[in-house]
Amino acid sequence: MFTTGTSSEQAVLRSLEAIVRAMREAAFLVSRDLPCSRGSIPAVRLLSLNGPLQVGELADLLHVDTSVASRQVGQLVDDGYAERVEDPHDRRVRRLRLTPAGEVLAAHLHEVVELRMQELFADWTPDEVDEAARSLDRVARSVQALTRAGARHPA
């Protein structure tokens, strides 16, 4: 039976759950301003930040199964925002890169996200934003370490 304790760890868990819900709602709001599906937004952002990626690399960065990433890639290609190109180092390998339309979409996405982030943190000091980023990064690293350990030691 799952209990809702009052420990500090449980408080962090409740806060993280609230953040996940809020991020889902925020993604919906951001996607209304963009001509692509909400599910495509993280892939566009990652391709913009990292350049051409193999589907497996994109899946790893998205923390999803390759089949999920493949569906997102297919949608981006169908919509004209991405294309499959030959890897310059191995002609057998295909990478996904943004098309010019995808680059425009990524730039628009960046502008929308930047505006939302400025609104979100308008009443925070730069030091508060920095401290929040450090704390969230540490939580993410801890969760990732636990997830990796769980993958090595299945129940």
UniProtKB/TrEMBL annotation:
Boundaries of every HTH marR-type domain copy: 9-141
Pfam families noted in UniProt: MarR_2
Gene3D superfamilies: Winged helix-like DNA-binding domain superfamily/Winged helix DNA-binding domain
InterPro entries xrefs: HTH_MarR-typ, MarR/SlyA-like, WH-like_DNA-bd_sf, WH_DNA-bd_sf
Protein name: MarR family transcriptional regulator
Species assigned in the record: Cellulomonas alba
